[in-house]
């Protein structure tokens, strides 16, 4: 197997796990943010939605599309630091933050 194929496979698995962890932490929503919230240009859409909403409704779908289309993946992703800041001191989210660190590290190895 090529490195590229393994990277896409690992990324797909990270996205699946991220969704599962968000659900386990009760951070998954059945209600999509408004169209105006989704159109935010701020980093992590921090001006219009919660970080977990950004992960669910923007990050996961965009990354899943990149993986499915085998488009280039970001090489310098830093999602975990934002998660650490947003969920500082929230021990229930430690595994979720650790997973985001692992995903950041995976993509930086390209």
Short descriptors:
single chain; 110 residues; mainly alpha; de novo design (two linked rop proteins); 5 helices; globular; YqcC-like_dom; YqcC-like_sf; UCP006257
- The count of β-strands is 0
Tell me the helix content.
Answer: 55-70%
- What value does the Rg take, in angstroms? 14 Å
Assembly annotation: single chain
> CATH superfamily name?
YqcC-like
Domain YqcC-like: 13-106
Pfam family, one: DUF446
Organism: Shewanella litoralis
Protein name: YqcC-like domain-containing protein
Structure overview:
The chain starts with a helix and ends with a helix. It has one domain (3-30, 44-108): Up-down Bundle (de novo design (two linked rop proteins)). The chain contains 5 helices and no strands. The chain has 110 residues and is mostly helical. The mean pLDDT is 95.
SSE arrangement:
Elements: H1 3-24, H2 35-38, H3 51-68, H4 80-86, H5 94-108
Helix pairs in contact: 1-3, 1-5, 4-5
Summarize it.
This protein has 110 residues and is mainly α. Helices cover 60% and strands 0% of the residues.
